[in-house]
Structures are given as structure tokens and as C-alpha cells.
Amino acid sequence: MAPKTFLYFIFTLISLLQFHFSAGQDAVRAGYWFPGSGLPVSDINSTLFTHLFCAFADLDPETNQVVISSANQAQFSTFTQTVQQTNPSVKTLLSIGGGSANQTDFALMAAESTSRKSFIDSSINLARQYNFNGLDLDWEYPSSASAMTNLALLLSKWRAAIDNESTSTGNTSLLLSAAVFYSSDYHYTIDYPVQAIVNSLDWINVMAYDFYGPLWSSITGPPAALYSPVNDQFSGNYGVTSWIQAGVPASKIVLGLPFYGYAWQLADPYYHGFFAPSVGPALSSDGSVAYNQIGLFIGKYSATTVYNSTVVSNYCYSGKTWIGFDDTESVSAKVSYAKENGLLGYFAWHVGADDNWALSQTASDTWGA
Fold first, then answer.
1. Model pLDDT for residues 195-237, shown as the tens digit of each residue
2. Distance CA 154, CA 118 (A)
């Protein structure tokens, strides 16, 4: 090879490598916030995050447009400005939908080209109007094969519209992510449209939690086990592996961390490990309890605390009350797992449930170690 040709080859190779790495998505250390969380936007410690999700914008079923309720407009309109005062580099995404949204409305919207366009165009306009850096779809969940097909169409058209808007305006392209079921096949029967997801989304937020809860399991269990010795399907590792095997690169997967747990009422206080018989929820109607409230419970009742490194989950108990949750040990182990397996990062639901930023700080420190 002639010297000039060789130098040109080296220069081209370096340029391509630089483009590859510059085009790749930065690591994601993210958290969701919502108005009812009890945490003012101004109190979010945004230095612990690279991305923050503002939840939730709504789908208007009449117009198929993305809207923000009048009660939330003031907080949403200044969300980006507020969190960037502490951390100017943090990126913000407007999340649409959520677990309490009407999923039939999303299915109907995604089924028609005109309604998809109304949804997409309004979402982009709203993101720009409120100075968000991206958009996040939280459709829980497409529950039929046709809904998954229509999700693929929605994502493909959304990506094209975002790219076109960026080209025509000169603005930096909006990020596009989606919160998804923890496994690539919803309820192990309906496959997500993986190719459309890979082509259209910057990443997916894998909701690797709610495996056990007192309203749907009559025994105690790790709500967000990374590994499960009883039924491997009920684990974060199973979910992540299923997405990778389905064709989603690890570098587009963000692992979910719940900043809450579930409380059961034990049938017998002398049986207080994982998979102990229970008689329903404790502490709340569905048993859900925020991490900061779990700390108060432990202190008030001198509860016994246990970390199981095999399952990667914590629990505590006092009398007949038993709580499964993630503490600093399990959060650190999960973030290490994400990093070691080449995942893009992690996200927390939700930052308002943290206790003096203990979990968020642990996650950030572990990722940076």
C-alpha cells in the first residue's frame, strides 16, 4: 500500500470511528418525576441525572392530540429551565401516557394514519413549545397483535417526523424513547415490533418491576428481583435477556429501578422470608409504599432488614407487616449489572420517592465507579 493511500485509509478509519462514537447515545442515568410525587421541581437534585422525564402529558381522545392538563401547565412549561439551573447539561423528555391512561385511546389513535399524524405533530410542537429535549411514550400496554403492528407504524412515522422537523428548522433532533413491558413479549404471548423499535427509538425503558405484589400474589416476593430462583420469568435479567435475544442491542436498553416497594400482611409472623404466605396488602390499599416511607417504617418499628444477594432484593418485617423493596445494596448491584452487560443505563420510577437522594446517589456513584 502506497504511503499516501495508507494515510488516507487511516484518516478515513479514524473519521468513521469518531462519527460512530459521536453518533452513539450517551449513557442514561434517568429518573421520572410527576406533579403528585410530593417533590417540587425546584428540589430535584438534577446533578445526579443525565436525563429527567416529566410525566405525564395526556392523549385527547377527541382530537388525538397530546395535551397537558391546565393543572400541570405551569410546572411542565418551566420544568426544563428549572432542572437545568442546577445541571445545565441534563436533558429532559416529556413522557406521554402512563399506567393510569386509557389504553384503548392509545390503541385507537395508533390504528389510523390521520390520528397518528395528529398525535405525532402535536407531540413535537408541545416538546418545542415547552423546551423539552425529547419525547417518551408510556403506552401500558399494546395488548394485541394488531396494536403491536400499529405501534410499529406509529414509531416509524414519529421518527421520520422528528428527523424532518430537525432538518427543516435546524434544531437538534428530539430524543425519542418508550417505556415498555419488562420482556419483549407482552405477557409472554404478544411480541413487540422489535425492528421498528430499533430503527425508531433512541432507547427503551424496561420496566423490570412489579413481579410480585399483594393484590396479585398471595405470597411475599421480591417486587423487582434481578434474578429469581423460583420462576426465572419474574426477573429483570430474564426481561433484559429477552429483549436482547429479540434483537434490541444492549446499548439501547435502560434498566428500570423502582424507588418503591410493596407491603404484605403476613399470615403468620414466624414465616417472614421470601414466598411466605400472606393475607393481602398492608400500609396502603394496594400495598405500594415509597422508599422514603419504608425508611420511616423501619425506624419506627425497629424492623428487621434483609438483603438477598442471590435474588438482588431487600425486604424488612415487623410483626405481621412485610415489605419487599430495593435498597442501596440492590440498586448498586443492578446498576453494576447494567454497566457490566453493556446496557445504556438505568432509570428510576420515581425521584420523589427517594430518601434524601440515597438511591439516586448510590446509582450515580456506581455507574461512575
1. 999 999 999 999 999 999 999 999 999 999 999 878 778 999 9
2. 11
The answer to whether residues 59 and 105 touch, using CB atoms and an 8 Å cutoff, is yes
Give kind and range of the element (H or E) at residue 57: strand 51-60
Quick: pLDDT tens for 278-318. 999 999 999 999 999 999 999 999 999 999 999 999 999 99
**Which residues pair with residue 234 across a beta bridge?**
none
What is the rounded distance in angstroms from the CA atom of residue 47 to the CA atom of residue 340?
23
Question: What residue segments make up the domains of the chain, in order of their start?
Answer: 28-258+327-368
Point out the residues that are catalytic: 140
Tens-digit pLDDT profile for residues 153-190: 999 999 999 999 999 999 999 999 999 999 999 988 99
φ, ψ at 320 (rounded to 5°): -95, 0
Q: Exposed e or buried b for every residue in 208-230, given b needs 16+ CB within 10 A? A: bbbbbbbeebeebbbbbbbbbee
How many other CB atoms are there within 10 angstroms of residue 46's CB atom? 22
Cα(52)–Cα(32) distance, integer angstroms: 6
- Name the phi and psi angles at 186, rounded to 5: -60, 125
Three-state SS letters, 178-223: EEEECCCEECCCEECCHHHHHHHCCEEEEECCCCCCCCCCCECCCC
For the full predicted model, state whether its pTM sits above 0.85: yes
28-258+327-368: CATH architecture = Alpha-Beta Barrel (3.20)
Q: Which of 99, 94, 88 is nearest to 33 (CA)?
A: 94
CB 330 within 8 A of CB 312: yes
Three-class SS state of 163: helix
Task: Please state, in angstroms and rounded to a whole number, the distance separating the CA atoms of residues 208 and 96.
Answer: 19
